[in-house]
Amino acid sequence: MFGSKEEFKEHFMRRFEQQTEEQSPQTAYAVLGDMLREHIQEDWERTNTRYAEHKDKQLYYFSIEFLIGRLLGQNLLNLACYDLVKEGLDELGYDLSEIEEFEPEPGLGNGGLGRLAAGFLDSLASLQMPGHGCGIRYKGGLFTQHIKDGFQTEQPTDWIRETGSLDVRREDLALDIPFFGQAGTAENAEWVKAVPYDMPVVGANGRTINTLRLWQAEPSDRPIPSTKTMQIYERETAAISDRLYPDDSLDEGKILRLKQQYFLCSASIRTILKERQFEIRELPDRVAIQVNDTHPAMAVPELMRVLLDEEGLDWDEAWAITTRTISYTNHTILEEAMEKWDSYLIETLLPRIYQIIEEIDRRFKAKLATQQLSTHDRHKLSIIENDRVKMAVLAVVGSYKVNGVAKLHTEILKQREMKELHEQFPDKFHNKTNGISHRRWLMKANPELASLITESIGSGWVTEPERLRELDRFAKDQSFHASFEAVKRQKKEQLIRHVEHISDSPIDPDSIFDIHIKRIHGYKRQLMNILHIQMLYDRIRQDSSFRPYPRTFFFGGKAAPTYDFAKQVIKTINTVAHKVNSDPLVRQHVHVVFVENYNVSKAEQLIPAANVSEQISTASKEASGTGNMKFMMNGALTLGTVDGANVEIFEQVGEENAFPFGLLAEQVMQFEKDGTYDPQEIIRHDPEIRQVMAELTGGQLTDGIENSNYIIRQLIDRRDPFFVLKDLRSYMAVHDQMLMAYTEQTRWTEMAIKNVAASGYFSSDRTIRQYAEEVWHLDRRS
Ligand code: 475
């Protein structure tokens, strides 16, 4: 940020003294924010001018979530002045990491999908590519989680009210969006003003500063419909950007959500077209729009609407442009997460959009009419079916490229979930295996490991992460082992300092840190993990020869407030934790810690400290997973199912350097088809599982039976749809293997190093380069 430390200090102090507030770390945070804003302003403008002058094709990444995490530290790091600022502040008596803690985390996402979008922006700017985000500026991000008596409680999070935010209100770009009213004319419509807030996205070591444009909903100046009072209108308008839907993979299906989706798409598309400096027919050569899952799939009919009604193109021209501009990423095959909107809802709220969707559907069906297709196939190929609009079908039909997020997931899409669509459009489908920002997950979260790597192989990996492979040379190097182990130890101690206040007994840094952090969900199988822990408890107490190497199991994650099963899983984890941790014998071997309010900042503390990465989804259900990649990059070994990107992790590092287990995707899908899996059979034949089930159904794992009814219903009445009991034996066995491996310290460290070495492939820089080349056709500039 400044030529020298002295210059920084001087500037900082000058600003600091102008402040009326007391000179606290909080004020220091605000001052740093101001300095940063000023510092990047020029480069930000320069980037925009450069794009305009060079007529670069621009990418817009449409996403209902951008889980950006804290920005101060990451921006300083990307500007290559983190160390300088840290040292300068040190000399002034301030601790930068303490100041960073004052930044409220903008929780503008639920989990993987939102975090992926944020990581992609980091890679785009760092690769100096013209790629921007379009999203919503939710006033309240994802709720703050506290644990009370073992249960999750939810408090609203207000991240905006705090100072130091870098975004800029762009009143000049505000526009009105119509809802309801008459198709085509928008007569009697209810208008909502969309105001963009632009957030700079600072690329690493370059001068590229892209834009994350977040839209805020406000009352418009236009007359309101006579059927509404001002008060109701204002409330309903504010609601559009009031809060993020706290559900992940469960579709709440609320009209408000539909409003949010259209609000985002319409404001973004109209602005892109209004600001353009080219002929409308050039759109596909000048703009690419990526829709992140189906939430922004309204982009398809909205772009059609603008081209038809505002630009005056005919249908065929408009369709050709739309389907060469938009591409779509699918993130899940879970039936309940596949968005389907009741036709009447869209028709009432967005009458013109509904007409266009109907016409897209009609023309597509007309095209199919000439083919010999089964009724089943025709169903699968309908956009509108049984008075519902299937957003995924709309997104596929309206895009030129469609991708899954890991090899296995893409294959499942092509061969099963979207088989019929794939047959119609074989060339549209492609895979883009997800990636993570190595700048955040290695350089920022684990500077100690990053330095060690650079000392050993040089800094080439920073811009070419696949060069982490060069670490393989050190996999057997004793002195490297010692340094590597020292870093892991240091990160474990740092984590302990962060979490010890929540733990009822001291955490042993010599124990194996086994970490399971992600949204709480049936398919992610936190339940399997905690049942296994309870089985360890039983075994330790019943078998005096069973004294396993000490392990600390960490859990973290939020449950959607309406997802009762997931909430009971949290209660189970905390009940078993209490039981295990307060047993003097068991606690020498097993310790359980539930980390409250899991978010990006917590992940940055947890992941570098991990020895074991729990990635245990039911095979076929986790589209990719990205936490798995972060752990690997920090030298944790994956204990996981052959699912999502785990498959590619095993491929990259070799199965011998990981712990795969469990049913394969085909086996799961076969059981789902033939219905032959019977959990009761397992309970009957396996005494240990029988015991833990008896404890569960007796209410011992949840302080009473009423706190486990949803779990029991799922395992017994619903016949264990996520194969928890089916995979439990295999899970126990792989844990035993892992324990054996851990006791061979040298071998373990070697495996951990190999994981870091093989993790470069999972940098989102690789993913973004692939999208840029194969989908967006962006020119790379230097
Ligand atoms: C997958 N979120 C991961 C990750 O590709 C994958 C759904 C509905 C409403 C709001 N949010 C969602 C998701 O579907 C989601 O996070 N999906 C995840 O996307 C990135 O790595 O396997 O589950």
From TrEMBL:
Q: Which cofactor does it need?
A: pyridoxal 5'-phosphate
What Pfam families does the record tag this protein with? Phosphorylase (PF00343)
Tell me which residues bear N6-(pyridoxal phosphate)lysine. Answer: K630
Q: Which GO terms describe its biological process?
A: glycogen catabolic process
Q: What keywords appear on the UniProt entry?
A: Allosteric enzyme, Carbohydrate metabolism, Glycosyltransferase, Pyridoxal phosphate, Transferase
Reactions it catalyzes: [(1->4)-alpha-D-glucosyl](n) + phosphate = [(1->4)-alpha-D-glucosyl](n-1) + alpha-D-glucose 1-phosphate
PROSITE patterns associated with the record: PHOSPHORYLASE (PS00102)
Q: Which GO terms describe its molecular function?
A: glycogen phosphorylase activity; pyridoxal phosphate binding
GO cellular component terms, alphabetically, are:
cytoplasm
Under Enzyme Commission nomenclature, its number is 2.4.1.1
Instruction: Spell out the family assignment given in the record's similarity comment.
Output: Belongs to the glycogen phosphorylase family.
Q: What does this protein do?
A: Phosphorylase is an important allosteric enzyme in carbohydrate metabolism. Enzymes from different sources differ in their regulatory mechanisms and in their natural substrates. However, all known phosphorylases share catalytic and structural properties. Allosteric enzyme that catalyzes the rate-limiting step in glycogen catabolism, the phosphorolytic cleavage of glycogen to produce glucose-1-phosphate, and plays a central role in maintaining cellular and organismal glucose homeostasis.
User: This chain belongs to which protein, by name?
Assistant: Alpha-1,4 glucan phosphorylase
